[in-house]
């Protein structure tokens, strides 16, 4: 028994020693500088804890006296100064450019570049491609959703001119922003090989001008649409019936009751509002570089809620260089934009070739009464009731003869 | 259709207006990334 215990103690001692070695590698051979093992680890793509370099930036407090040897260095040697520059802790004064100009080296930029060229572009393209394919498949299987009943030849006003104006302000600017955004992200990959760099340069410049300035029209449209339609988009129990039959999208002749907006439209509305606000916020951050950083504060709140830890992302960084703020803003801007584009592709489909009579709602604003009865039955009743009420009131207002 | 064309025209007006306003307010990239001692466009 004693032997077993002894063996365990020895084993434990070895284990602790090896663990301790893992935590702080022996760098005495290089005088504390990085070792061959550090370099090999980095080349193998493994994580290296660089604190031993990051923190080795000298100490002015323990400087040799000015009269002694090397005293004039002030406790910080040249390599230590370079390390401080490398890890962004050097005390730098600049004549212009603000805080961001004091960051001389920022390796987060490489991670951002790799992410932008890699997962962002790849998954973004897949998302849009898959959406278009699914819509094409839906069209092939279901065909155009026709007006089932007999057309009445009469119309009902679905959207007033101001509503259509707001919609098209948002929609027109969104399409421009989406196209110019895609050109910015995929230009180097897809357009330059086709037309060459000389032809792409003015295109990219014009695209940037459009993207930066049309953004304001998008934000105005977003506010207009929110104010005009929010009251009609509060979810209610009618939506449950719509969900139960899949909105009648999958089967001919199925028409769940709906008010002015059905549940599908409500999803589009809230998707556009929430994602639109998010894409606008990150867009403003990009429009005014370094002026409105928002990711460090957001990450801090998310960390406190425990969401990143829960989904395995660990604790998110909260000390971000000004450039890193911009890099996160760009990635988030693009991710949100891709989701919106996928959603809007489906919206464009169902509002044009996907459904007979749907486009009129935003075209002339007047829709076929039968279409309205099939897709927004409760809303038609509300409108007719209001008209009847108005008619009765008008009749009552006439002087009796 | 008229509302749509009007909205598209508004997009152009807002964009050109925003660009002019921001440039005159000193929000161009050139203005933002230089110190006052730099004479731009001279």
UniProtKB/TrEMBL annotation, chain A:
It comes from the Bacteria. Residues 1-20 form the signal peptide. Its EC number is 1.17.1.9. The keyword Membrane applies. Its main location: membrane. Residues 158-355 form the Cytochrome b561 bacterial/Ni-hydrogenase domain. Its cofactor is heme. The keyword ATP-binding does not apply. InterPro entries: Cyt_b561_bac/Ni-Hgenase (IPR011577), Di-haem_cyt_TM (IPR016174), FDH_cytochrome_b556_subunit (IPR051817), Formate_DH_gsu (IPR006471). The chain crosses the membrane at residues 120-141, 168-194, 214-231, 268-290, 331-350. It is a multi-pass membrane protein. Belongs to the formate dehydrogenase gamma subunit family. One of its GO terms (molecular function) is formate dehydrogenase (NAD+) activity. This is Formate dehydrogenase subunit gamma. Keywords: Cell membrane, Electron transport, Heme, Iron, Membrane, Metal-binding, Oxidoreductase, Signal, Transmembrane, Transmembrane helix, Transport. It is found in: Cell membrane.
């Amino acid at each position: 028994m004693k032997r077993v215990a002894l063996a365990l103690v020895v084993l434990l001692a070895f284990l602790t020693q090896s663990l301790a070695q893992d935590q702080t590698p022996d760098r005495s051979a290089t005088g504390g500088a990085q070792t061959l093992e550090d370099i090999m680890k980095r080349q193998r793509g493994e994580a290296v804890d660089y604190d031993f370099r990051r923190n080795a930036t000298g100490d002015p407090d323990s400087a040799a006296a000015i009269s002694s040897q090397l005293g004039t260095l002030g406790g910080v040697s040249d390599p230590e100064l370079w390390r401080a520059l490398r890890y962004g802790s050097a005390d730098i004064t600049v004549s212009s450019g603000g805080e961001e100009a004091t960051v001389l080296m920022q390796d987060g930029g490489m991670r951002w570049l790799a992410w932008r060229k890699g997962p962002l572009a790849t998954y973004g393209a897949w998302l849009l491609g898959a959406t278009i394919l699914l819509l094409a498949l839906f069209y092939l299987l279901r065909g155009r959703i026709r007006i089932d009943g007999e057309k009445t030849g009469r119309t009902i006003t679905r959207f007033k001119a101001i509503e259509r104006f707001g919609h098209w302000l948002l929609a027109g600017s969104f399409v421009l922003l989406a196209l110019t955004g895609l050109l910015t992200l995929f230009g180097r990959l897809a357009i330059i090989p086709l037309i060459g760099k000389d032809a792409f340069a003015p295109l990219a410049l014009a695209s940037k001008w459009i993207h930066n300035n049309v953004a304001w029209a998008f934000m105005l449209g977003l506010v207009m649409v929110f104010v005009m339609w929010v009251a009609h988009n509060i979810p209610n129990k009618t939506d449950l019936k719509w969900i139960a039959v899949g909105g009648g999208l999958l089967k001919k002749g199925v028409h769940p009751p709906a008010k002015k907006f059905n549940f599908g439209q409500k999803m589009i509305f809230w998707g556009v509002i929430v994602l639109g606000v998010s894409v606008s916020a990150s867009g403003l951050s990009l429009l005014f570089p370094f002026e409105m950083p928002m990711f460090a504060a957001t990450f801090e709140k998310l960390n406190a809620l425990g969401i990143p830890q829960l989904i395995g992302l660990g604790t998110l960084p909260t000390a971000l260089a000004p450039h890193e703020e911009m890099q996160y803003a760009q990635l988030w801007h693009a991710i949100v934009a891709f989701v919106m584009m996928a959603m809007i592709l489906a919206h464009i489909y169902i509002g044009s070739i996907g459904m007979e009579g749907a486009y009129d709602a935003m075209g002339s604003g007047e829709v076929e009464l039968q279409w309205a009865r099939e897709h927004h039955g409760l809303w038609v009743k509300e409108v007719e009731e209001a008209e009847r009420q108005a008619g009765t009131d008008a009749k009552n207002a006439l002087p009796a003869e | 259709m008229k509302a749509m064309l009007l909205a598209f025209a508004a997009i152009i007006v807002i964009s050109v207006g925003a660009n002019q306003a921001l440039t005159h307010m000193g929000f161009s990239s050139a203005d933002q990334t230089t110190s006052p001692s730099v004479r731009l466009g001279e």
